[in-house]
Amino acid sequence: MFHPKGPTFFELARQCLSSTERGYDLLAPKFDVTPFRTPDVVLSVVVEQLERFAPIGSALDICCGTGAAMQWLHPICQDRLVGLDMSEGMLKVAKANLNGLNGNANVEFVIGNALAMPFDAEFDLAVCFGAFGHVLPKDEPQFVQQIAHALKPGGRFVFVTSAMPPIWSATYWLCRGFNAAMHVRNWIVRPPFIMFYLTFLLPETKALLQSHGFDVSVEEPFKGILERLRLVVATRRDQ
After folding, report:
1. 191 cis-preceded (ω within 30 degrees of 0)
2. How remote is the C-alpha of 100 from its chain's centroid?
3. 19 with 45, same domain?
4. Among 60, 81, 124, 171, whose Cα sits 20 to 30 Å from the Cα of 50?
């Protein structure tokens, strides 16, 4: 549908009618040739900004998917690089994508839920790309609390988001339309498939992070068609 080697319309429909976990298991083999994968142009800018914090000892990629961000993080991570995801299928592809990369970091993969991560003050850096739509607004405080718990004091949570697009924009209405369709789907079909747009946006996310013990800076390193994106660096306070 998006690429000659990508999923067909019927494969995407089957994924959407599955649970979130099962849906991504089904999509995993073809995920990297869909528009749902975070583009390298975004990841390259983020990693360029992260280099100012080097050396980075340990890093966690939350909802790592097929390991797109991990491939960029691997060269700048010194000791430990962990990818966490709830989909075994996505982790299987991530392992293949990371296999054979040269670097110092020990690469690990953990199957788990971002709302109940098995980490305690273990990481200097946590990132999350393209997965905020899988966290319902009511669960965002728990999500942020889990990230704070996984980071060492002084550790950073780095991600990309934006403000709400203007109500008159096509982006706004396309996203609202998609969200409405997902609400109807989840009302009719069980188990639910959790994926929504226009979530974890500024300025609300900045306030949420601050309330959970982070100092937050919002930066504007993106240009051109990506200029609405913001890089958020949230540093866990030393408490």
Report:
1. yes
2. 24
3. no
4. 171
